[in-house]
Amino acid sequence: MLSFTHTEQAFPEKRAAGTRAHDFHEISQPFLIAKAEEQASRCSQCGVPFCQVHCPLQNHIPDWLKLAAEGRLREAYELSTSTSTMPEICGRICPQDRLCEGNCVIEQSGHGAVTIGSVEKFITDTAWQEGWVEPLVPLADRSSQSVGIIGAGPAGLTAAELLRVRGYEVHVYDRHDRAGGLLIYGIPGFKLEKEVVERRVQRLVDGGIRFHLNTDIGTDIGFAELRQRHDAVLVATGVYKARPLGLEGAALPGVVKALDYLIASNRVGLGDDVPAFASGELSAEGRDVVVIGGGDTAMDCVRTAVRQGARSVTCLYRRDRANMPGSQREVHNAEEEGVRFEWLAAPASFAAGSSGRVASVKASRMRLGNPDASGRRTPQPEAGQDFTLPADLVIEALGFDPEDLRAAFGEPGLAVTRWGTVKAENERLSTSLTGVFAAGDIVRGASLVVWAIREGRDVAQSMHAWLSTQAKGAQSPTGARKEAA
Ligand SMILES: Cc1cc2nc3c(=O)[nH]c(=O)nc-3n(C[C@H](O)[C@H](O)[C@H](O)COP(=O)(O)OP(=O)(O)OC[C@H]3O[C@@H](n4cnc5c(N)ncnc54)[C@H](O)[C@@H]3O)c2cc1C
Ligand code: SF4
C-alpha cells in the first residue's frame, strides 16, 4: 500500500472520442487486473478514511482496496457487497469527484485520488464473471407478511432485495415495462450498459421477488387497495415532473423534454420499436440540436444527440462552467465528442421555420450578478448581446420536480413538503400514513443513485423493524392481525 508516492494515478483508458461517439457502449475500457491491483495499492490506508465518510453508503473503501491490491478479489467483492446492493453500478456512475475520490487524502496532497470508482467497478464485474455473485436466498421465513414497493428504481430494488433476504414476500410495482427506473430508461448506455442493470434485476426475479410491470399505482391499482394487499408499503416513485421553460415558442414541434428524448433513445437501444423516434420527432439524426441546461441530464442529452448523428450539438447554460451542477468529467467527455458549450447564455424564445417546426433559438448573453439567498450568483442578462442559433431539435433539460402524489394516489393524508416531496421521518423514513414508508428521489428530490441505494438500505431496516413489531402484536393474545381488523 501507499504506493502513491511512486505510482501515478490512472483511470481505465477511454475509447477514442471519434470511435465512441458512434455507439452507445460504455466509453471506458475495463481495467486489467494488474492495473486495478496497482491502482488499489496507491491507497494510504488513512486512520480516518474521508473517502468512506463521504461515500453515502459508507463503503469500507480502504479495506477492499487493500484486499484488491493483495489480489484477494473475492474477499474484496464480499466486503464491498456487504454495504452496497449495486457496487458495479455506483463504480460506473457515482460523481466520485464530489464524493469518495474528491475527499481522498492523497487527492488533497496533490497526488491525485485513488481511482476508487474504477476499482469498485472492476471488483464486482470480476465477481459476476467468476460466478461469485451468489443467488438471492431468504435467510428466514417471514412470508406470512408481504411488502408492496411502488417503483423499481435503485431505491425500490435495494429495499426489495434486503427485505426479501429477511424472508418477506416482496412485490414490486412499476408503471414501466422494465424494472430499473432511471437506471434503465434515464441514464444512457455509454455511462451504464443495460445488461449491467438487467442482470441485477434478474437476480431479484430469481430470488422470488414478484414484479408487476406496466402497473401504475393510482391508475391500474388504487393506493388504498395496495395498502390492503400488503402489510407495509414503500413509495419509491422518483421525481418525474419536468420543469418547464415557459418561453415563447416552447410548444412548437421539435421542442421536447429531456426524459422523453432519453427514454426513446434507451428503448431503441433495448430493441424496442419507438414510433416517435422512427418519425424523427425524438431523434437528433441530421439535426441542429440545442440542449438547455447544465446538469447531468443535459450532458446525457448532448452526448446522446452526438451518437444519433446530429449535424451540430450546442449546450446553452445560463451560468459559467465553474458554476454548473453537472460533473466536470462529463463536460470534458462531451467536449471531446464534439459538443459546443455556450456558457452564460439563456434561451429567450424559439422561432418556427416554414414547416411550422422549431428552426432557431434566440438566446441572451448573461453575466453573474450578486449571490441569491442560497449563496449562488444569480445570472442576469447583458443588454444588447442577444444572438440566434439554428435549432431544429431543442431539448429542455432543466431538472425534475415531484409529481402530485396525493392527487395521483387519491390520498390527501400523505404529508408532503412544500416542494411536493414525501415527508418521511429522518431515521425511519416512515410517512404520515401507518405502514407506509418512502425512499429515494421522492423523499430527497432529484439526487443520485448512491443516495437512492442508501435510503433503500435504511428503509428496509426500518420496515423490517416495523413489520416485526406488527408480527409480535399479532402473536400476542391481545394483538389483532391487520387482516382481521
Ligand atoms: C438523465 C438522468 C441521468 C442521471 N445520471 C445520474 C448519474 O450519472 N449518476 C447518479 O448517481 N445519478 C444520476 N441520475 C439520478 C438518478 O438516476 C436518480 O437519483 C435515481 O435513479 C433515483 O432513484 P429512485 O429509485 O428514487 O427513483 P427512479 O430511478 O426514478 O425510479 C422510480 C420508479 O418508480 C416508477 N413509478 C413512478 N410512479 C409510479 C406509479 N405511480 N406507479 C408505479 N410505478 C411508478 C417509475 O416508473 C420508476 O421506474 C440521473 C438522472 C437522470 C434523469
Ligand atoms: S458508492 Fe460511490 S461514493 Fe461510494 S465508494 Fe462507490 S463510487 Fe465512491
Number of strands: 16
Which homologous superfamily in CATH is the superfamily of the largest domain?
FAD/NAD(P)-binding domain
Radius of gyration: 24 Å
Task: Name the CATH class of the largest domain.
Answer: Alpha Beta
What would CATH call the architecture of the largest domain?
A: 3-Layer(bba) Sandwich
Counted up, domains total 3
Bound molecules: flavin-adenine dinucleotide, iron/sulfur cluster
Briefly note the structural class of the backbone. alpha/beta
Say what the CATH topology of the largest domain is: FAD/NAD(P)-binding domain
In terms of per-residue confidence, which ranges show pLDDT below 50 for 5 or more consecutive residues?
Answer: 479-485
Biggest β-sheet description: 5 strands, parallel
Strand proportion, as a percent range, falls in 15-25%
Structure report:
The protein has 485 residues and is of the alpha/beta class. It has three domains: 3-130, Fumarate Reductase Iron-sulfur Protein, Chain B, domain 2; 142-240 and 402-475, FAD/NAD(P)-binding domain (3-Layer(bba) Sandwich); 245-400, 3-Layer(bba) Sandwich (FAD/NAD(P)-binding domain), CATH 3.50.50.60. 35% of the residues lie in helices and 16% in strands. The chain has helices at 17-20, 33-40, 50-53, 61-69, 73-81, 87-93, 105-108, 116-130, 154-165, 182-185, 194-206, 223-229, 258-269, 275-278, 296-307, 328-336, 405-409, 441-444, 449-475, and strands at 142-150, 168-173, 210-212, 232-235, 241-242, 255-257, 288-292, 312-316, 340-342, 345-352, 358-371, 377-381, 387-390, 393-396, 400-401, 436-438. The strands form four sheets. It has a five-stranded parallel beta sheet, sandwiched between helices. A hairpin with a 5-residue loop joins strand 11 (358-371) and strand 12. Helix 2 crosses helix 8 (116-130) and helix 9 packs parallel to helix 19 (449-475). It is globular. The N and C termini lie far apart (60 Å). The model is unreliable at 479-485 (pLDDT under 50). The structure holds flavin-adenine dinucleotide and iron/sulfur cluster. Flavin-adenine dinucleotide is lined by residues 93-94, 150-156, 173-176, 181-182, 186-187, 191, 216-218, 236-238, 262, 296-297, 300, 408, 440-441, 447-450, 452. Residues 55, 57, 59, 61, 90-91, 94, 96, 99-100, 116-117, 120, 450 line the site of iron/sulfur cluster (SF4).
